[in-house]
Design goal:
- By secondary structure, the protein is of the alpha/beta class.
- The chain folds into four domains: 138 residues, 3-Layer(aba) Sandwich (Rossmann fold), CATH 3.40.50; 69 residues, Orthogonal Bundle (Helicase, Ruva Protein, domain 3), CATH 1.10.8.60; 90 residues, Zinc Finger, Delta Prime, domain 3 (Up-down Bundle), CATH 1.20.272.10; 74 residues, Orthogonal Bundle (post-AAA+ oligomerization domain-like), CATH 1.10.3710.
- Helix content is 51%, strand content 7%.
- The chain has 19 helices and seven strands.
- The strands form two sheets. It has a five-stranded parallel β-sheet, with helices on both faces. A two-stranded parallel ribbon has the order 6-7.
- Helix 8 crosses helix 10.
- The longest helix has 21 residues.
Length: 426
């Protein structure tokens, strides 16, 4: 059922608007190297074949997973000979081009430059990360999206009706079965057709029911790559949903990651990080709960331990938020980077030896527990940083009490400085 013409393409209209890279290639008026980036089953291989057919040039395709350097070199040598003989380039289609390393990708550069080949690479991974910059500068990136359930339905109905390539109209599908199939395909036309074929083979009375589709599906395959862009997209969605205090979205993205096979301990580690970065001292229970969820999963495993992670996820989403510790620590690290190894004031240095005492270490130190209000008015930052502030608590949750306490201490110290009163020393 692979489309034999551009007119049979489903869900591709936006790629062929006037001025779009593929518009001239569809018309056969211009050929250019491109990188097709899109999810499985969105039509990358089909597009490459149609472009070659419309341009009237040889098509050579291979997979970066199955092919090695030797095959690439032989293909490029044949492309050079073909161009010398006929003046036509070869359309070289490289499926999963991100699987090639930098050196292998570099092998295409000279031949793209000389026009021996028109390179069309296909990838499910973000080309910015997986395709080297030299190749990206010579090839336009075309982004393909997953097909919608409505577009999948067009593909399925065409397969049911087509007498030469499909099921020939001899089998029908119930409406609820079609709806389930189109949603469960998750934007992948190939998966939809494979499932349809399997369900049709076991259909009774030449009719595909919802139960037949459920049996054919077994379990939905979720689009996910634990080392690729989808991994980062989903953890970002989880983190930002929690930051925006949306427990519903937080639990959904958590479920998506776990259902797709993500390591639950990875998610638990991210929640521990979130507890410090985005909740901080606004809720002092958040970090212990996140650590407990990590430990609970480590001890219980799947599925029991996943509930602890879900509990933590919902708690963090609904907790008061503060990034004051996160930003304060960032300011402190930046200051250390800028000012280097500034020495501590003598008054707060330890003096375990006579020499150190003679040098003034600890001289005049005041023990905080002996001071009024339990706070000592002495220098703690290096001379160069006196007056610097790093931690500024917010008015959220428990941090509001921390802010009140800090202001009270500052007022107490200011009053002492104004009156000249100081508590007893050591």
């Amino acid at each position: 059922m692979r489309p034999a013409t551009f007119d049979e393409l489903v869900g591709m209209d936006e790629l062929f608007q006037a001025g779009a890279p593929l518009a001239a290639m569809r018309d056969g008026s211009h050929l250019a190297s491109i990188i097709l980036w899109g999810p499985p089953g969105s039509g990358k291989t089909t597009l490459a074949r149609l472009i070659a057919a419309r341009g009237g040039i040889p098509f050579v395709g291979f997979s970066a997973v199955l092919s090695g350097v030797k095959e690439v070199r032989e293909t490029l040598e044949r492309a050079v000979l073909e161009r010398r003989a006929s003046g036509r380039p070869t359309l070289l289609f490289v499926d999963e081009i991100h699987r090639f390393n930098k050196a292998q990708q570099d092998a295409f550069l000279a031949h793209v430059e000389t026009g021996d080949i028109v390179l069309i690479g296909a990838t499910t991974e973000n080309p910015s990360f997986e395709v080297n910059s030299a190749l990206l500068s010579r090839a336009r990136v075309v982004v393909l999206r997953a097909l919608t359930p409505e577009e999948i339905a067009v593909v399925v109905k065409r397969a049911l009706a087509d007498r030469e390539r499909g099921l020939g109209g001899g089998i029908a599908i119930d409406d609820d079965a079609l709806e389930l199939l189109c949603v469960a395909a998750d934007g992948d036309a190939r998966r939809a057709l494979n499932t349809l074929e399997l369900a049709a083979a076991s259909a009774k009375e030449r009719r595909i029911t919802r139960a037949a589709i459920e049996r054919a599906l077994a379990r939905r395959h979720l689009r996910y790559d634990r080392a690729g862009e989808e991994h980062y997209n989903l953890i970002s969605a989880l983190h930002k949903s929690l930051r925006d205090s949306d427990p519903h979205a937080g639990l959904y993205w958590l479920a998506r990651m776990l259902a797709a096979g993500e390591d639950p301990l990875y998610v638990a580690r991210r929640l521990v990080r979130f507890a410090s970065e985005d909740v901080g001292n606004a809720d002092s229970r958040a970090l212990p709960l996140a650590v407990a969820a990590f430990q609970a999963y480590h001890q219980l495993g799947t599925p029991e331990g996943e509930l602890a992670i879900a509990q933590c996820c919902a708690y963090l989403a609904t907790a008061p938020k503060s990034n004051a510790v996160y930003t304060g620590f960032g300011r402190a690290m930046a200051e250390v980077e800028e000012s280097g190894s500034l020495p501590p004031p003598l008054v707060i240095r330890n003096a375990p030896t006579r020499l150190m005492k003679d040098l003034g270490y600890g001289a005049g130190y005041r023990y905080a527990h002996d001071q009024p209000g339990g706070i000592a008015d002495q220098q703690h930052l290096p001379d160069e940083l006196i007056g610097k502030r790093f931690y500024e608590p917010t008015s959220e949750g428990e941090e509001a009490e921390i802010a009140r306490r800090m202001k009270a201490w500052e007022k107490l110290l200011a009053d002492r400085a104004r009156t000249g009163r100081a508590g007893p020393g050591t």
